[in-house]
Amino acid sequence: MKFMLLIMNGDPDNPPLKETDYPAIFAQFQKVTADLQAQGKFLHSARLRPEVRTVRVGRDGSRTVTDGPFLETREMVGGYFMIECPSEAEALEWAKKLPPFFNFQARQVWEM
Questions:
Q1: b/e burial code for range 61-70 (CB count within 10 A of at least 16 → b)
Q2: Which residues contact 39 (CB under 8 A, 6 or more apart)?
Q3: CB under 8 Å to 33, separation ≥6 — which residues?
């Protein structure tokens, strides 16, 4: 089964990140990526650009420009990992290995 681990912005109860925090966070992402690759479970991952505006296209083709990537939300998706594993429980275990500053969602992919 394929799962997408959505990387959400940091927990608002945590203190803001300092510039000195980033090397350890990136190292942890790199380690998880290497471990997933070594076990043949890694499919893809990417960061999303922190856009200041987003264009949404409606079903009728209309376009709406907003001042952020998501309407009426406090959390923003900052990136994702696409992994393949036999169960949701294992996907959640992988999510727990990612940097604790972020919140994660593990969502099973519905292939179309």
A1: eeeeeeeebe
A2: none
A3: 42, 45, 81
Distances 98 to 12, 34, 88 between C-alpha atoms, Å: 17, 12, 16
- Bridge partners of 57, per DSSP, are 63
Backbone phi, psi, residue 106, to 5°: -110, 115
Give 7's strand partners: 79, 104
Fold of 2-108: Alpha-Beta Plaits (3.30.70)
Per-residue model confidence as pLDDT tens digits over 39-96: 999 999 998 877 666 777 888 877 776 665 555 556 678 899 999 999 999 999 999 9
69 Cβ partners below 8 Å, 6+ apart? 48, 50, 51, 54, 76, 77
β-partners of residue 77 are 8
